[in-house]
Amino acid sequence: MGIYVTVPGLLLLYFLTDTLGVPPWLAGLALLVPKVVDVVLHPFVGSVSDRDRARNGNRVRVLAAGCLLAVAFTATFAVPGSAAADPYLAAGWVAVWFVVGNTLFAAYQVPYLATPTDVDVGYDERTRIMSFRMVVLTLGILVGGALAPLLVGDGSGVSGYVVMALCLGAFMLVFQAVGVGGVRSLARAGTAPGGAAEGGGTAAGAVPPARAALAQAWSVLRANRSFRVLAGSYLLVSTTTHLVLAGLPYFAEYALGRPGLTTVLVGSFVAPALVATPVWFRISRTLGKQRCLLAAQWAFVLGSLGMLAGARTGLAVVVLATLVLGVSFAGLQLFPFSMVPDTVRAAGTGELDRAGAYTGVWTATEAVGSAAGPYLYSAALAVGGFAATRAGEQVAQTAGAHTAVLLGFTVLPAALMVLSVLAQRRYLLDSDARGLPEQPAAAPGGAPGTHQGA
Asked: Which pairs from 298-302 meet CB under 8 Å and 24+ separation?
């Protein structure tokens, strides 16, 4: 999951504008439109996942279907020569395969993230479980973010991207299979199947149509204010972090004049999570998730503005600001994801059977943000007059383009994160959620967070 979240977010926009010669406005649309499909797709997958769990006691079938993701991931970058010669055909090829990839990713991501809600644990235990996930996710992000630019190489054209996609696609497939086995074992160890929620679950008959999935999505948003507020704030968080990810190659090349620094900056952005995640977890046991999340959001604002200062003062400040962003990023991933089960469980036992629907809405929110961020950055480039190029071409960018590269990467994400803070302050569940009694931990050798007698 870390690879698929990171590599398209980091390289696809740059691949389109600086390898295939696609204008920024068109490149942004090629990435935005497939993610709009996710607004329907993710709730649909969530409803299918809930149906599968009600019938079979687990979500493994949908999860296993997502293991075809590596094929679509490779095809997204394997643009044939006839399409690569035309910017519109190239954008169309990438967009179509990106839709296929997002569909398969949803099939894996949605049931996977619904599993912590299925497990009967308490407030801090959910954060602990998610902290393990965050550490492993960070390793995936590091592998994707650090290796992808190195595997592509400088000026290698489409072939370099295909080599990169084949290597990382194989890595993804191996660990997806590990995840399927883990969720299957967890279900056997004690996560009991749920029934269809009265009035909201999915019948065991036909797969729910897209309209029913959208109705289910609207239902959970309308019924659960805490979840609605959390999702709204996280939409802005996801938009901001993906904007920064998409802008990193441009910032390294055009603001710093050192394109080779992309790998270093990605590492500085992601690696702190390995240390920061357990620290954030320990702090949250005292302060609560909400306060820690707000602190992480404000730290991101400071880090973004620090990047602006670093572009003028020197590389040391840039690296320091990137480390601040990395510590913040760990909190921005850990706390919202661990708060989603809090909102579902606080809504009552009747909502537990719709955990997949909640997760579908949540991952759709994340997907929209992952498209909106690169789109906003591409829009900033277009406004600044940034000129697209093909692999090997050299074009002198205007002063306006350089300004757009810099401000779009620093001031714009800072402003978006401030808006996210304002939205997050409306979340009022945390103090109540902390007061709920913890569920007993698993017996030795059992699944984490399941009842000992399960």
From this structure: 298/421, 299/324, 299/325, 299/327, 299/328, 299/331, 300/240, 300/241, 300/325, 300/328, 300/329, 300/332, 300/413, 300/414, 300/417, 301/414, 301/417, 301/418, 301/421
**CA gap 183, 433 in Å, rounded:** 26
Please list, residue by residue across 117-144, b when 16 or more beta carbons sit within 10 angstroms of its beta carbon and e when fewer do: bbbbbbbbbbbbbbbebbbebbbbbbbb
Tens-place pLDDT, residues 266-285: 888 888 888 898 899 999 88
Nearest to 43 by CA among 383, 363, 417: 363
Q: What is the pLDDT of residues 365-408, one digit of tens each?
A: 888 888 889 889 999 999 999 888 776 667 788 999 999 999 99
Reduce the DSSP state of residue 437 to 3 states and report it: coil
Average model confidence (pLDDT) for the chain?
82
d(CA 275, CA 99): 34
Q: Name 390's bridge partners.
A: 20
Which 8-state DSSP code applies to residue 305?
Answer: H
Amino acid sitting at position 39: V
The pLDDT score that the predictor gives to residue 35 is 76
> Cα–Cα distance between 98 and 90 in angstroms, integer?
12
Burial (Cβ within 10 Å: 0-12, 13-18, ≥19) of residue 68? middle
**Cβ 341 vs Cβ 210: under 8 Å:** no
- Tens-digit pLDDT profile for residues 321-358: 999 999 999 999 889 988 888 888 787 776 777 777 78
CA distances from 139 to 1, 119, 134, 292 (A): 10, 24, 9, 23
pTM: 0.72
3-state secondary structure of 20: strand
* Residues, the chain: 454
Q: Please report the sign of the dihedral spanned by the C-alpha atoms of residue 444, residue 445, residue 450, residue 452.
A: negative
**Distance (Å, whole) CA 106 – CA 95:** 16
If phi over 0 gives left and psi between -120 and 50 gives alpha, with beta otherwise, what is residue 314? left
Q: Which residues have CB under 8 Å from 315's CB, separation 6+?
A: 256, 261
Task: Over range 212-234, report the average pLDDT.
Answer: 82
Residue 358 near residue 227 (C-beta atoms within 8 A): yes
Q: Give dist(CA 320, CA 264) in Å, integer.
A: 12
CA distances to 140, 152, 180 from 168, in Å: 10, 11, 18
Which one-letter amino acid corresponds to residue 177?
A: A
